[in-house]
Amino acid sequence: xxxxxxxxxxxxxxxxxxxxxxxxxxxxxxxxxxxxxxxxxxxxxxxxxxxxxxxxxxxxxxxxxxxxxxxxxxxxxxxxxxxxxxxxxxxxxxxxxxxxxxxxxx
Amino acid sequence: xxxxxxxxxxxxxxxxxxxxxxxxxxxxxxxxxxxxxxxxxxxxxxxxxxxxxxxxxxxxxxxxxxxxxxxxxxxxxxxxxxxxxxxxxxxxxxxxxxxxxxxxxxxxxxxxxxxxxxxxxxxxxxxxxx
Lengths: 106, 130
Description:
The complex is a heterodimer.
Chain A: E1 4-7, E2 10-13, E3 19-25, E4 33-38, E5 45-49, E6 53-54, E7 62-67, E8 70-75, E9 85-90, E10 96-97, E11 101-105
Chain B: E1 3-6, E2 10-12, E3 18-25, E4 34-39, E5 45-52, E6 57-60, E7 69-73, E8 78-83, E9 92-99, E10 108-109, E11 112-113, E12 117-120, E13 124-128
Parallel strand pairs in B: 2-13
Antiparallel strand pairs in B: 1-3, 3-8, 4-5, 4-9, 5-6, 7-8, 9-12, 9-13, 10-11
């Protein structure tokens, strides 16, 4: 059973900041990792798949990197629309999400 | 437009049964895997299982096996999530979501194909309370 650990749980940042969220898998998942954005009362939205591939229509300020067990989601310049909760998901063996990272206004 | 539309909110009592639905449109419904994801109030996302409507091949999360039943009726482009006896701890928002790759291009492993969810339903809130 592959566990996913996201950090931090909460992140306070300002518009224009560079933001990095980390996701660690309990064993290697190659590049089978996705990142989602979720706003209150809404369904998640796919941002990144296969660790670093940007989903169509997602702004280029979002990027993903990593392989094996350690992964990062980076927002190069935080915009007002980016304040939300971010979830990582492994889909190497069955699937499991991380516990989420809330990005809030500083 | 590609979309998944879920059935409306439900309020049930413990011990009751329930079946919620997810209807796809705007794409070849039978050819894309659809999964169910639970989100308990104020909590993270939990992957429950996945089904291929074309042949009803189903892969359940070990965490949810025996607790729910996932099924599909491709003739009406609909996937279902069903409980036979609800508990208060089943209170949550339930989302259906589609894998982003056409099923014919995916290799299926024990836990289902390796792919992310690109299209999500709006969610169905299930409240179980006496």
